[in-house]
């Protein structure tokens, strides 16, 4: 699971952000992007030593100033749920693509090898061009 | 052991307990749930181990899910759960780490 996907799912949830300078920001995540820039609403900012507080209606934090974020536990379940749903929506496209590729490669190689020992030319013939050529040489 | 040498990187550590040293000298122990190219980590069930040369190791429950930014990570280590259970943290004395010098 990707950290940025988790953050995206944490939108509308309360989060805590600690910056590299030690300040922490508690608020509701409005939005975040692929640079980890985060937009918070209804924020409480706490100074590094933890003894001063500020209420701020809205903040935008540049991603590279962040040390870490804390997100609610349920967010990870939400991510799993959403990825599951997404995979379920179009499983055919995904599976067909992989299946075709897998089978194509498998058939060429498999037949060539197996039939080489066992059944002779017929099998080798359908194994693909490379195999057929080699097969005939062996037979001669 | 969880680390499979065939597999490079953090993939083999996913869903195992790891120990992270951050640039500010903290030691965070948690379950790795995810990571990315920038070494941003998702840590579950986090604890911080606060070392002191005067008293034992203080295990602070940070709780919940943390996303630690890769910029702030110095070391990621695999943690042997069995071995870890045998530790008596209250008897360990160690000076706290200093922050990384850039």
Automatic annotation (TrEMBL), chain A:
The Sm domain covers: 2-75
Q: Which Gene3D superfamilies match?
A: 2.30.30.100
One Gene Ontology cellular component annotation held by this UniProt entry: spliceosomal complex
Bias (Basic and acidic residues) occurs at 82-91
Which Gene Ontology BP terms does the record give? mRNA splicing, via spliceosome; nuclear-transcribed mRNA catabolic process
Gly residues bias spans: 113-130
Q: Which residues form the signal peptide?
A: none
The keyword RNA-binding is assigned to this record: yes
Which subcellular locations apply to this protein? Nucleus
One GO molecular function term?
RNA binding
Q: What is its main location?
A: nucleus
Q: Does the keyword Transmembrane apply?
A: no
SUPFAM superfamilies under this entry? Sm-like ribonucleoproteins
- Which residue ranges are recorded for the region named Disordered? 82-140
The Basic residues compositionally biased stretches are 131-140
The alphabetical list of record keywords is: mRNA processing, mRNA splicing, Nucleus, Ribonucleoprotein, RNA-binding, Spliceosome
Protein purpose: Binds specifically to the 3'-terminal U-tract of U6 snRNA.
Record text on subunit structure and interactions: LSm subunits form a heteromer with a doughnut shape.
Q: Which family does it belong to?
A: Belongs to the snRNP Sm proteins family.
Report what the protein is called. Answer: U6 snRNA-associated Sm-like protein LSm4
Name the species this protein comes from: Elliptochloris bilobata
TrEMBL record, chain B:
Q: Which GO terms describe its biological process?
A: mRNA splicing, via spliceosome
The record's annotation in SMART domains points to: Sm
Give compartment(s): Nucleus
Q: Which keywords label this protein?
A: Acetylation, mRNA processing, mRNA splicing, Nucleus, Ribonucleoprotein, RNA-binding, Spliceosome
- Where does it mainly reside? nucleus
Query: By its UniProt entry, which Gene3D superfamilies does this protein fall under?
Result: 2.30.30.100
- Subunit note: LSm subunits form a heteromer with a doughnut shape.
- Name of protein: U6 snRNA-associated Sm-like protein LSm8
Q: Which organism is it from?
A: Elliptochloris bilobata
The lineage, from the top, is:
Eukaryota, Viridiplantae, Chlorophyta, core chlorophytes, Trebouxiophyceae
